[in-house]
Amino acid sequence: MLGAMRRHSKSFLIYLLFGMIIVVFVFTFNTGMGGGDGGCVSEDVPAYAKVGGHTITRDHLVMSMNLLPGFLRTPAGMSFTLAAGADAGELYRNDVEELTPKQASAILQITEMIYLASDEAIRLGFKIGEKELAKAMYPESFYKEEEVTGDDGLPTTKKVFDSRGFNNWIVYGLNSSPQEYEDFVNRVLLAFKLQSFLAGVVKVEPMEAELAVRAKNTKVDLGYVEFRPDLYELAGTVTDEEAARYAAEHEAEVSGYYDAHPAVFHADEQFQVAGIFAAAKAEEPPARGEEKAAPVPPTKEEKEAAAAKAKAMLERIQGQGDLFPMPPPAADGSQPPKPESPAEPFARFKEVAKRESAHAESPHRSGLFSGWMTLAEMEDQPFGSEGATALAGAAKDQLVGPFETEDGAWILYVTDKKERKDESLEQARNGIGRILLQQKKAPETAKARAEELLKIARAAEGTDLDKALETFKAPAEGKELGVDAILLQVKRSGKFHLATPGASIPGIGKFEELFKDAFKMTPDKPLADKVYVQPDTNRVYVVKLMEKALPEAKLSAEDIEAERENLFLTRAIPTFESWLKSLRQGAVERGQMERTEEFQSFVSYLQNRIDEKAAQEAKRAAKAAGLPIPVTPVPVPAE
Fold it and tell me: What pLDDT, on the 0 to 100 scale, is given for residue 543?
């Protein structure tokens, strides 16, 4: 009796334990992410979007991140992704917490479109067979080789599915349940099947794919010299009579040019100057560790002393007395020679500026100020409005000053001057006519110059284009070197193939005539027999074939198949994209597609994580460099 009780008590414990496992299993697999088709949405899983009757949750993002990369490797999957407008590169992620806002949006977008398209596929009567579904659901990685005894009694191996590992992967890897996993895979297959059906009207024959491969393997590399018309806008020969006649015949064009270029015809007088500064108060550097003290205005006596010093320097520059003082005797008592004084006034000015000007830049620039300045602009210079007043009416090569400023006295030298310009339309008319006519003739001039180079290259048959260009650049006796001789050079396009979109040539751009002729050129006759004028830009080209590559007689089947898939995607995607866009728009208009505030909060959370990491990295970098550690501002709540 005691033994029977022991047996029954063991059975009871076993049944009790088994029942607990079942309860745990049910609760584990019957919660989570179901949509509007019977599944339950766990209350603690945030909902990110509504699509039809489905709720897309955070767990959907986890499942999409883990499963979609495998599905998207197929042509149908890649085509669906591109048509859905999602960036495939943003889908390959491991941790939902490490997503960027852009990545989260891309993953949610492709998930939304899968549910939207699969609903439409079901409505149209599409189904996924059991074998097709099973093949997609059960990855090969969960099949293991196990040793078993065969029918003949000998040991052998057999593939056994790892159900336990598979279920753990669904629960812990995908945040899902077997039912939800099956539904998700089924919907992905339905969406792709519908896409493939719609794209089925696109046909790519093997011969078409082979021709495309041959076109891509037919490549040329061009050497070319480019003649730009803008280089010759001032080079064309235009007589006074031609300029006047053109201006008279094109009054509206001349008037438009005049109005569009006011700075050419109206300008204040401008100066280029050099300066010498005599400071009223010497600036003393602060002691080590002390801050620079606020400047103390010079006294009247200090200003008078600076003015006297500037006057003495001016007299020396003008030749009144020695420019340089006698240097002190050397240590051995010998007398060093006095520096030689230049005779030209500006040279004397620069020597004094280098040695004696108190302006910080004078030793490095011989007193020169860079750039042209109007009198109004001079107020921003160190010599200020006093300098502008002193310079009013000054001529080129004139010494001005000394004049006093708040902190000392200045002497200026006018190195160059542009007189005030106020030219009326009538005064400028013929000059504008000349400019416009030169611009009109520029393309003709560019073409004529290009034909000169081509003639030289033809005469030197067998030489390269570089040598022909050297001969072309050499100036004729009694003529100056042209601007094109400085800027022209032989350029290389690099290899491009016969299937290049838009007949575009690297470095040149779209040029259909030259593109076609380039592939007709042969190595035994590499120089083009004419110059090429690009219609859009009027640029002119002298061209030579540098290299040509042809495809092999027999192409690989892999290359042809890859090109067939590429052509299929290129043609199928626009068709499906248009249909998918209208499907989405209809769902939005019916209120069947929207994103939740929880998703917006999730995106903000992801951005905050990125900002926090960047701030921490900035602090670490500052600390390592010994710089002040940046303080992250704390937002102040609104009252």
Answer: 93
145, β-bridge pairs:
159
Spatial neighbors of 16 by CB under 8 A, at least 6 apart, are none
CA gap 222, 366 in Å, rounded? 50
Reply yes or no on whether the pLDDT at 140 is more than 90. no
Is the preceding peptide bond at 295 cis, omega within 30 degrees of 0? no
Tally of helices (H runs) and strands (E runs) in the chain = 21, 18
Q: What is the DSSP string of 115-156?
A: HHHHHHHHHTT----HHHHHHHHS-GGGEEEEEEE-TTS-EE
Helix (H, G, I), strand (E, B) or coil at 605: helix
* Contact of 274 with 366, CB cutoff 8 Å: yes
Measured CA distances, 351 to 276, 344, 347, 447 (Å): 10, 11, 6, 52
What pLDDT, in 10s, does the model give residues 281-293?
A: 766 655 565 666 6
* Eight-class DSSP state of 170: I
- 173: Cβ contacts below 8 Å, ≥ 6 apart: 66
| Residue 314, CB-side half-sphere exposure with 13 Å CA sphere | 20
State the Cα–Cα distance between residues 421 and 261, nearest whole angstrom: 13
Give the C-alpha separation, 526 to 81, whole Å. 46
- Residue 545: what pLDDT? 92
User: Which backbone phi and psi does 223 adopt, to 5 degrees?
Assistant: -105, 140
Contact 274/367 with Cβ under 8 angstroms?
A: yes
Helix (H) / strand (E) containing 558: helix 557-589
Q: Report if pTM > 0.70.
A: no
Give residue-wise pLDDT tens across range 102-136: 889 988 988 999 999 999 999 989 999 999 998 88
Integer Cα distance of 305 and 316 in angstroms: 17
Note the pLDDT tens digit of each residue in 31-76.
Answer: 333 333 433 444 578 999 999 889 999 999 888 888 888 777 776 6
Largest CA distance in the chain: 141
Picking from 615, 593, 584, the residue whose alpha carbon sits closest to that of residue 49 is: 593
In 465-592, beta strands by DSSP E: 490-492, 496-497, 504-505, 509-510, 532-533, 540-549
